[in-house]
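Take a specimen:
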Amino acid sequence: MTSRNLPYWITTGLFCAVVGFSGFAHFTHVEFVVESMTELGYPVYFMTIIGAWKLLGTAALLTPRQPLLKEWAYAGFAFNLAGAAASHAFSGDPVGVVARPAIILAIGAASYLLRPADRRLPSSPSLGSAPSTAPASGATSQG
């Protein structure tokens, strides 16, 4: 691991620890998670599905290479965490509760953008890539 990869590993380690624990808690039906999911109106069996996918997604992010699998895992986490924030917001939970999944999503986004080249698809964005200044083919300057 190089010092250049340190921010990636810090954000990825933190992200994987949080979603990995969450996946385990969902999969094993930890009592406080069951209560929260029930209050949101989700059936208990949904926790098993979400928990399994979170655990598999965490493993995918920590597995060497496999950039396409990582893209899918990051996308799945983005959908899950955005949905969690929305579920809490629509159910009337306080802002602090709504913000938790959004903060975790931001840490996941940092992990995604900081990942090294061997963990990215060639066309994936990163913090080190400069945006293209060339117009897309067929683009015009009409306003």
Observations:
- The helical segments are 6-27, 31-39, 44-62, 67-90, 95-114.
